[in-house]
Each structure stands twice: as C-alpha cells, then as structure tokens.
Amino acid sequence: MSQLKQVAIVGATGAVGAEMIRCLEERNYPVGSLKLLASARSAGKKLKFKGEDVVIEELTKDSFKGVDVALFSAGGGISRDFAPAAVSAGAVVVDNSSAFRMDDSCPLVVPEVNAEDVKKHQGIIANPNCTTAISLMALYPLHKAFGVTRVFASSYQAVSGTGAQAIEELARQSREWAKQDRAWDAAKLDSKPQVYPWQIAFNVLPHVDSFLDTGYTKEEMKMENEGRKIMHHPGFRASVTCVRVPVFRAHSVAISAEFEKPISVEAARAVLEKAPGLDVIDDPANKLYPLPLEIAGKDNCAVGRLRMDCAMDNGLAFWVVGDQLLKGAALNAVQIAECL
Amino acid sequence: MSQLKQVAIVGATGAVGAEMIRCLEERNYPVGSLKLLASARSAGKKLKFKGEDVVIEELTKDSFKGVDVALFSAGGGISRDFAPAAVSAGAVVVDNSSAFRMDDSCPLVVPEVNAEDVKKHQGIIANPNCTTAISLMALYPLHKAFGVTRVFASSYQAVSGTGAQAIEELARQSREWAKQDRAWDAAKLDSKPQVYPWQIAFNVLPHVDSFLDTGYTKEEMKMENEGRKIMHHPGFRASVTCVRVPVFRAHSVAISAEFEKPISVEAARAVLEKAPGLDVIDDPANKLYPLPLEIAGKDNCAVGRLRMDCAMDNGLAFWVVGDQLLKGAALNAVQIAECL
Q1: Residue of chain A whose Cα is closest to the Cα of B285
Q2: Alpha-carbon distance B298 to A133, whole Å?
C-alpha cells in the first residue's frame, strides 16, 4: 500500500490548480492531507477535495512544514521565491513554471519519455512547457524508432495556457460580439483587450510568451531546448511558430519531422498505436482526426493526419492535440508526483 | 482612356462575388455594363453597383453574349459547365475555382508575380488558391532574391474561404454559445454543424478541401503545385498543413523557407519592403505583427515575425496574412482583369 503523502498546491485558485486538485482525486493519488495555497486575496475561500471543503491558505515561506510534495503552478516568480523554502522544509517540488526547467540540477520530465530522470532530483522537478510535452507524446516514440533529427512545427494554442483571466477574456469578447448582434465582418470589438495585447476572439496571435532579440518568442524556443533535455538528444533542432487561437483548453501542433532512418506511414502508425498516453485518430475518409474541442478534458493526447512529408526525405507530417491543462500541465505534474 | 468593358460576375451573391463588385467599384475598373449572374433562386434580386440597382439574372449558357470579361466564383462545377460557353461567346474568363488552375492552356496568375503570363491565355485565366496567393506575396520576392528551394507551411484559414454559409455557421455557433451563457469548458454545442463536419467555433479543423489517398488534403498540395506553376519553378517543394480556424475573413500562414543563397533577416526585410502589394509589419518590441483581424478588409497582404530559421541553413521563418476574399480571391481576379 502506498504511504500517504502530505500534498500542497501552490496556485490552487488558477486554471491549472483546479485541474491539479481534480487529477489528484481522479487518479487516487495517496493524499494524506491537502494544503491549498494562494495569494492573500484568496485566503479563507474554500475549494472541494473529495467532497470535503479545504480552506485556502495564504502562501508564505512557512507554508511547507510537514509537506511531502508541493505542486507549484503560480508563475515563474512565485516558483523562484517559494520553491527553495519548500525544499528546505523537506518537500519535493514539482514546478509547472519555466523557472527551473533548464537548470541542470532539476530534472525536466514527461513520465512517458524520461520517468527515470525523476530519481536524479535534488528537491525540484520541472514540468515542461505545454506545447513541448504534448508534441513529445507523439514525437518521442517516433524518435525511439526512427531517430528524429529536426522538426518544423506550428502551434494552435488555447487561451488556458495563459491562465484563468485569458479564458475569461475569450469568453467575454465572444459574448460581447454576440450580444451586440454584429455583422460577421465587424468582428473587431470596441472594448480593449486586457490580457492579450490584441483581441483574441475571431483572431489568431503569432505571439506566445515574450520576444527574444532573435525575433523568436521564448515559447518558440522551448520545443528545441526542453526537447533536447527531455529526450537526452542534444542535436535535436526545432523551428517553431507559436500562435494563440480562440480555443479554450486544448493545444494543437502541426509537425513535420525528419528522421535518420527510413520511415513510412504504416511503420509510424504501428509505433504510435503502442505509445502510452496517446490515441491515434487518423481516419480522414471518415473525417476523423484529432480536434481540440474533442480532446478537451481528456488525459490522453491524440495524433493523426499521418502522411509522408512532401519536402523532406525520411520525413513524416502529423498533427498532435492535447489538453493544455491536463497533459500540458496538471496531469503531467501529478504523474511526476506518482513517480516519486 | 481605357475602353469600357462589358463585365459579368458569375456567383454574384456569394461572399467572393460581393467583394468582386466592390473591387470593380473601388479600383475604377472601366465597367461599361455589369451583368450579375447567379442561380435561378437569386434571379430577380437586386445588388448595388456604383449606387445603381443591378438585377441578378439566372446563369445560363446564353448569358455571355457581348460580355468582354467574365469573373467566375461559383465553384468548380459551375466553372467547368459554363466557362467554355463564356469563351465561345467571346469573353475572357477569370476563374476563381480550382477547375482550370493546373490546365496547361490556362495561365495561373498572381499579377505581382507573373502578370506577363496573362498574355498567353486562350480564353480562361485561373485565379490561384487563396493560401497560395497570399503566401506567394511574400515568398516570391524572397525567391527572386535568394532562390527558394522548399517551404514548410501551416495555415490558419478563415471561414470565408468556404463561402457565405460557413461565415454564417461560425457566427451562428458563436451566438449560440454566448446566448446559452455556457461555461468556457462547455464550449461544445448541442447543435449539429451544417457546413463543416465539426463545430468551428472555439475549435480548429485540420481539414480544408477533400482528402487524397496520400493523407494530404487537396488544399495542402496547392501551394506546391500552384506555386511551381506561378513561380515557373518546377523544383519547388512544399510541405503544408492546412487548418481552418474560427476567424471570419483573413488567412494567416506560418512559413519556414529554405533558400539557395545565404539570407539574413536584414536582407529579407529590405526585399520585402520593396515588394508590391505587401506591407512589412514586424516590430515585436511594440507587439506589432500581422493579425487577421487587422488585415481583414485590406487590399495589401502583410508579412512579419521575420527570423532566421532554427532548423535549416539559409532558412527564414516568417508569418504572412492576407484577406482571403480580397488578395485570396476577388481582388486578385480584378487585378488579372486589369492586365487584359
């Protein structure tokens, strides 16, 4: 029988925090006690866990006494400020922010890819970028079989990746458009966006995370940087365009991947059908392919649109979709905690 | 002074037809008389041209007597059935469907790229696929300067590309969601989609046009096939994923392009800034990049997010946006008519 763990969630009131609570419940994680931590603003409010009220406490450096596992999802600044305190108090931190991902002393883990790296932790284990984690669910099994050299990828990222306020922004803008009974070609609203720099409803934004001097966004470099670390593949190259789309909670990624060994659609499908945590939905004749609205709320990611790449030898083009809040965040974090 | 032309529009009641009428007006095309043709269902209705009512007539094989230029935008079947009749009657057809694009006897023209091909026509000139035309507005100037070998491209295509009923479907689904005051994670509606196989509101569909046996859609092959013909570049390769997004009328395309000659962001920008019909919007520090909601209704396409490709030598990544109904359809057709 598993030993019961004292678990803390930092950022319990966020979009990912809510899914972390649900994942702990649904996966029957051996929770002894659950501590929900958030900012002072939320302290005193209650959330349900297994039918019981849990009172939210204010996050302080003294919050982690007796805590075994602390799941952080409150942004990089909070992680940098509070994760060391949690580690000092004896907790193992699973951090959903980008703060420690590229830190050599912190394993970066997708359990289906590199669960064994969890053992090397020195207190903090990092949860990868959502688009990277979802892409690797299909790319890594193909890499093991055929040896990936590089990918060209474009993302279609849901607003949940930006957090609860962004979800509300898409909902509010969509309602504003509908309630004003606007014509379709008057889709640009009068109200100013608050979370994104531009309206997200009826628009797509080629801007996720902040820009680097190279012209890439930080988000666009995560697939190459985090992919190399997670796959233990320092030569892996990734050319990525990250785009926010008016979808609520599942990310989609169009990938063209080049491999060292010859690949075929049939051989790739055979590999992907055996991959853990991944469904193959690839029956174009019946209009079946992964869709973010269908994958939303599901633990498994899905891959489809398998075809030989038109512009590369040994290239395969495919389409991966995963729930950003689950495999892209909360589920992967809880799976890491299960590896402990 | 230009000689006045007798102009017919076939498919006058469609989303593209409406824009054709507007483009003829706004560009002061020398219209002597305008004949608006549509199905029997629309015959007798009126549309405005330069403030005057024009009565819609039913399209028949006898509709083209005295017509100099016939702009077709009513689908491939109508074009195949009626374009030969228009040519027999002495008209030059500019056809927006895919029916004649790959026909060796029909020039396929983006005027900024290959206007001189118009002269070779034998009665029918084809208007290219919208995503291809918009992509070439940025790709062709780069090709002339640096010699493109191949591209990896992912599209974010507006519903206008499917026609007026698809526009109405996105609007109706968005209103249904808003009026039911649904939670954000209940974005899947009860109502069945009618135009697309799956709900388009709050979703993205990796399915544009019909599927081929290779696993590609016809739409995905157009950039390679039509791009080769328009650029006179038979070795051009294109690996494309075409995706429908809940945007009303402008297409976006994320492109990674490989060139024969060394390229730099600065050299590429200098070339693109001189390209006709194209604006460079590329100032990430000020959150400026092309957006479909901003480009909607504009004649010029826009390019931005210029950066050296991470996964190719001599590679450039960029983002092109263009109004699907204008440069992707009606505007390009009227520009072709202007070349006559």
Answers
A1: A211
A2: 38
The DSSP output letter for B287 is: T
> Is B284 in Cβ contact with A207 (below 8 Å)?
yes
B235-293 confidence digits (pLDDT tens): 999 999 999 999 999 999 999 999 999 999 999 999 999 999 999 999 999 999 999 99
CA-based nearest residue to A294, from B208, B154, B241, B199: B199
Residues in A closer than 8 angstroms to B175, CB to CB, are: 178
Q: What is the chain A residue with the closest CA to B172?
A: A178
Collapsed DSSP state (helix, strand, coil) of residue B49: strand
Which residue from A154, A145, A152 is spatially nearest to A272, judged by alpha carbons?
A145
Q: Does position B211 have pLDDT exceeding 80, yes or no?
A: yes
DSSP result, A120-162: G-SSEEEPPPHHHHHHHHHHHHHHHHH-EEEEEEEEEB-GGGG
Question: How many Å apart are CA A180 and CA A183, to the nearest integer?
Answer: 9
Residues 6+ away with beta carbon under 8 Å from B217: B207, B208, B209, B210, B211, B242
Q: Which of B170, B211, B283, B293 to mutate to test the interface with A (most CBs of A within 10 A)?
A: B293
> Superfamily for B5-128+330-339?
NAD(P)-binding Rossmann-like Domain (3.40.50.720)
Which CATH superfamily hosts domain B132-164+194-324? Dihydrodipicolinate Reductase; domain 2 (3.30.360.10)
Residues of A with a catalytic annotation lie at: 130, 251
What DSSP element (H or E) covers B52? strand B52-55
User: In whole angstroms, how far apart are CA B52 and each of A315, B46, B71?
Assistant: 56, 9, 20
Please report the pLDDT score of residue A2 as a whole number. Answer: 61
Q: Contact B292/B251 with Cβ under 8 angstroms?
A: yes
| Tens-digit pLDDT profile for residues A77-97 | 999 999 999 999 999 999 999
End-to-end Cα, chain B, rounded Å: 14
Contacts of residue A196, defined as CB under 8 A and 6 or more positions apart, other chains included, come to A162, A166, A169, A205, A244
Instruction: Collect all residues of chain B within an 8 Å Cβ-Cβ radius of residue A168.
Output: 184
Would the CB atoms of B239 and A310 count as touching at under 8 Å?
Answer: yes
Instruction: Indicate the residue type of A115.
Output: A
Residues of A in contact with B289 (CB under 8 A): 206-207
Give the C-alpha separation, A20 to A29, whole Å: 11
- Residues forming CATH 3.30.360.10 domain(s) in chain B: 132-164+194-324
- Both tokens of residue B328? 């992707």
Comparing CA positions, the residue from B198, B243, B192 lying closest to residue B220 is B243
Chosen from A16, A177, A184 to mutate, greatest number of chain B CBs within 10 A: A184
For chain A, give every residue range classified as CATH 3.40.50.720. 5-128+330-339
Query: By the 8 A CB rule, do B138 and B275 touch?
Result: yes
Distances from the Cα of A58 to the Cαs of A8, A51, A74, in angstroms?
Answer: 12, 22, 13
Over residues A177-230, the pLDDT tens digits come to 999 988 898 999 999 999 999 999 999 999 999 999 999 999 999 999 999 999
Element of type H or E holding A171: helix A164-179
- Residue A213 is classified by DSSP as T
Question: Is residue A1's pLDDT more than 70?
Answer: no
Neighbours of A123 (CB within 10 A): 17
pTM assigned to the model: 0.97
Alpha carbon distance A134, A302 (integer Å): 9
Least CB–CB distance from A317: residue in B188, B239, B246: B239
**Chain A residues inside the 8 Å CB shell of B293:** 187-188, 198-199, 202-203
